[in-house]
Design goal:
44% helix, Terpene cyclase/mutase family protein, 405 residues, single chain
Length: 405
């Protein structure tokens, strides 16, 4: 659910180098294309325009703001006649042809965004129909239509289905649902990284736990999209073995594995060439959301605290999608995005594009007279402290290869 996840998918089709805005230290100094006035951010949108715009609109709505009509219209205008979205169309007035590389990730993100802002039922319906039409026989989706299914793409599509009120379990291809794909990507408990989720099997068919896929897959298995709050605590922190894993078991196994990984340093580390052992801020933010959704509030709060102390500079350099990820992480743990280590995430995001309308009274958060500020932690901080201090949080500690972290 982040620009890094999009970059991972792009890597699978051989264009990772071109996706630098998703992984580099800062935005592109000179965009290759003219920036539309309704688009958020200043970096080249060629590979992430729809993705970052979608996350921005979702984050603004989550914070209670009404996105600017210009921003919403830009996103809606990116849709092809068949319902699909590409990462970016520089000339949306031209009909989509075979040269336009539509993808499931951009389409599913746009569905969630347009559903959140409202008023685009027809566009959302066409996009969902297109997603259903390109479902693979294993029940999942790949980044590109017809491409091999992967955990990340399947999970973001699940989020789109859930957003429109469709039970993902009812969306089948050859008798298999997206939950069957996630079960197939679950690393067996007895292996290294057991319980975690793989992005895809390797060339030999072996599954290796991947934190990025784990964060996406937890939400997917729970039938959730980008926006979530703390869920019910898992019954056990042990890896559950079953012949046919239920979606809840997939989520809990992956959540336990993800918690054990992030607990080692308080954050995830990058596995991309040239950035090994550096903090992976984007996937760490996604991990906060996933852990909270799986009811692992104590670890989610600890990891959010690390982000609050370390991720401000990253967000400043990375742009709107990064701010959106942090806002969604704050929402998941009940924190105030108006006071993120002294920075207002919402204000910083809103300044990167067309100004949204002020939040309604029902969405304002007030503390010490501030509508978008206040304590860095809400009620979930208290809950987390009680969990940690009173009963403790048991994490499934499992050895994993350094390259899998």
């Amino acid at each position: 659910m982040n620009v890094r996840r999009s970059a991972a998918a792009l890597a699978a089709v051989g264009v990772l180098a071109a996706a630098a805005p998703a992984t580099a230290a800062g935005p592109s100094p000179s965009p290759k294309v003219a920036l539309p006035s309704g688009l958020y951010g200043t970096s080249d949108p060629t590979y992430d325009g729809v993705w970052r715009q979608s996350l921005t609109l979702i984050a603004q709505r989550t914070a209670g703001y009404e996105p600017a009509a210009k921003a919403v219209d830009w996103l809606a205008g990116q849709q092809c006649a068949n319902g699909a979205f590409a990462a970016f169309r520089a000339a949306p007035d031209r009909a989509c042809d075979s040269k336009v590389m539509v993808d499931t990730n951009s389409t599913a993100a746009a569905v969630q965004a347009l559903k959140a802002v409202g008023g685009h039922g027809a566009a959302v319906g066409k996009a969902v129909d297109w997603l259903k039409s390109v479902q693979n026989k294993d029940g999942g989706w790949g980044y590109s239509p017809g491409g091999a299914s992967d955990t990340n793409s399947t999970s973001v599509v699940i989020g789109a289905l859930a957003a429109v009120g469709t039970d993902p379990a009812d969306v089948h291809q050859a008798g298999r649902s997206p939950y069957d794909l996630l079960a197939a990507m679950s690393v067996p408990c007895g292996q290294v990284g057991g319980g975690g989720l793989a992005y895809q099997p390797d060339k030999k068919g072996t599954l290796y736990a991947n934190a990025d896929a784990g964060a996406a897959g937890v939400l997917g298995a729970l039938g959730k999209g980008f926006v979530t709050t703390a869920g019910k605590a898992p019954a056990t922190s042990a890896c559950v073995t079953a012949k046919h894993l239920t979606p809840a078991q997939i989520a809990d196994n992956a959540g336990a594995n993800l918690a054990s990984v992030v607990a080692r340093r308080g954050h995830l580390t990058s596995t991309l060439p040239g950035t090994m052992d550096q903090p992976d801020y984007g996937n760490t933010a996604d991990t906060v959301v996933a852990l909270a959704a799986d009811g692992r509030v104590g670890q989610a709060l600890q990891t959010y605290t690390w982000l609050e102390h370390n991720a401000t500079r990253w967000a400043e350099q990375s742009g709107p999608a990064a701010y959106a990820q942090l806002i969604l992480a704050a929402h998941a743990v009940g924190a105030q995005p108006g006071d993120f280590g002294g920075t207002s995430l919402v204000r910083s995001l809103n300044q990167l594009g067309p100004a949204p309308s002020m939040p309604s009274a029902g969405h304002e958060t007030k503390k010490s007279g501030k509508s978008d500020g206040g304590s860095a932690f809400g009620v979930w901080w208290f809950v987390g402290v009680c969990l940690v201090a009173g009963i403790g949080i048991g994490f499934l500690l499992s050895g994993r290869k350094k390259s899998q972290l």
